[in-house]
Design a protein that fits this description.
single chain; alpha+beta; 2 domains; 4-stranded antiparallel sheet; two-stranded antiparallel sheet; 31% helix; 30% strand
Length: 145
Amino acid sequence: MARRKERITKQDYEECAIFTGCFSRAWRAGKKEALIDIFKTTQLHKEKGMNAGTWGVRQPVEHRNVMLRLALMLQHGILRAVPEMILRAVPEMTPAKKEVLILLCPGSIDKRDISAKLALEQGLSFTHEEIMAALPAGGSKICRV
């Protein structure tokens, strides 16, 4: 049976842009927001003389400025860091189903140290490895509980 193509919504683009920004160098640099470029794979091109891993992008490119904030939550029993907007965007998710643990922003607490801080201050009991896998590279801070 052929699968039906689903349309990509503006909300999908926004969520993807936030993920991209949060898991980019902008988070490591401690920025509060990031400028993200949105384009199609058909706009990518490779020319002779370009270094390995370098690609060009043909215009037009859409630019989107996003706030760098992640909600640490449980999704199907797995600890995940997801864009905060997901919490507002899915109305059928009741607060109990969302299982939001904490909101994080870029900050000065090193990724390796945040697991102990979360365990002490918030009573979260996840392994160091679970927290390390969920968070972006760089420092974080607790935005609000």
